[in-house]
Amino acid sequence: MNIWVDADACPAVIKDILFRAAERKRIMTTLVANQMLRVPPSQYVRAVQVPAGFDVADHHLAAQVQAGDLVITADIPLAAMVIERGGTALNPRGELYSAANIRESLSMRDFMEGLRSSGVQTGGPPPFSQADRQAFANQLDRLLARLA
Question: Count of alpha carbons within 13 Å of 120, Cβ hemisphere only?
Fold first, then answer.
């Protein structure tokens, strides 16, 4: 099992949780982004820089993921690709994507995108909170115990 991180928009506090988990559980954790990332010196953590471009990091992640891997992403289409490949997808706010809920998430995303493209101001997600951080850490612990 490997952990893959869609790192372009992943909050720093979530990366820190992942760095600690990688060391504690000795799980290879790879951050993928289209910019240089700083990662702590560790045999379990590495960063991969992909070229700039729309969904380049997502396509790289989707191509690398294998059954049993865990991907951290807020990108719902990427989460759907991960699930199709037999991986597990976890949102940085602690929401676990599954075969049971990914279609609904994709539909809601498409609906909101349609509203935005027609000029409706939908706002963005709420600010990242301590409760989000805790929800992620709890879900990650449960997943690592189950997947390991």
Answer: 8
- Identify the pLDDT of residue 107: 60
Contact 147, 141 (CB under 8 A): no
The CA dihedral of 30, 36, 37, 39, to the nearest 10 degrees, is 80
Tokens for 73, please give them: 């992403």
DSSP state of 7: T
3-state DSSP percent of the chain in helix, strand and coil, to 5: 45, 15, 40
Sheet holding 29-33, edge to edge: 45-49, 29-33, 3-6, 70-72, 88-90, 96-97
pTM of the model: 0.86
Q: For 99-141, write each residue's pLDDT tens digit.
A: 887 777 656 656 567 756 777 776 667 889 999 999 999 999 9
Mean pLDDT (the chain) is 90
Q: Which residue has the tokens 């700039």?
A: 52
Q: Find the distance separating the first CA and the last CA of the chain, reported in whole Å.
A: 7
Is-contact 125 118, C-beta < 8 A?
A: no
